[in-house]
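input
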Amino acid sequence: MKSLFYLFFLCSFATPILVVAQTENTIKENPWLTTCKLYYAQGNYPLALNAITQFLKPDPLNWEGLYWRGKIESRMLNFNDAFDDLNLANKLYPKQAKTMAALAELYDYFGDYEKAFNLITAALIVEPTNLSFLNIEGLVLLHQKKFNAAFLIFDNIILRDSTDPIAFNNRGTARFNNQSVQYPSKEDLKNAEHDFSKAIELSPTFAMAYRNRGVVRLGLNDYNNAYQDLIIARRLDPKDEKVYYNLGKIYNKLGKNELAIEAFNNAIKISTIFCEPYLERGLTHLSMGNYESGRSDFRKSIAVDKNSKGRANYYIAKSYALEKNKVLCIEYLKNAKKTGFFVNFDNRNELIKDTSFNELLKDEDFRKARNEIIKIK
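output
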């Protein structure tokens, strides 16, 4: 079930807050623009938006104002407005590196990796030594599951600047995901934990690094420290759905089902494109004996992301197995097979070891059907 595990890192938008004024020329700069950048660096996006609005009043087509408004809107999750402003800025001032990089981040977030990669490549042609742009390039590769290539980029950034917290966070992510097995080894988890700890040391308010370290510690069964990291991440970034999702997983591990469901509910409220909370909430319902509620959640996950169809059908089969409904259990196992779900050895092995099917396995017809589904000889 690694696909559920590594999404905690991959589906994250926005790099952590940086003091952007370090690379901007503030000499004789418009006070509203300066104020905008300062609020942006502090993460106070509503005040940053107010300042850039004032800056744009006398000149609504100022490309730099549109660039900053687009950046702010993306951090406030107003993605349509962000796309409009950044695309207009890019049209008004073509080939401006930072505009292309900001657009690359947006396209990367929405999974259009080809456009993202083309844009960040174009930005790097203009500014080949820009470490922020290199981080974005690495993230695009990471999200395309080109983990080794991404790792090399982040490792190179760290060699050039050992004080870059983003690179340590991203290298930890690449370490974690560069696996050919279902789950990372303990050594991989420990190395990733070290990278996230270094990112936090360099940037103590780096919410994503706390969240990522919490996920790694969850994988290490270090529930107390994982919980503490996720609570800090929630305080720093209360709109990160992955934080609530992982809190829900910890509550599940501790048998606190109601708290788990509340956490998954919060994740669902924040994100409309994240299917995993539905799957995990559905499993929580199954553990509570609420089988129809669980099936409802599994079907919702498919509506959110069709790629979850195989796992959702497997979980629906699991729910019917718990109800000892042989016919419907077999039907949904077959549905899962049609999606290619059991082509993956880990998924076949998961079914073999799943105790939810133990009662039905006493039935010879079910055993034959299951063995045919997973091609057991």
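quick obs: Confidence is low (pLDDT under 50) at residues 1-26.
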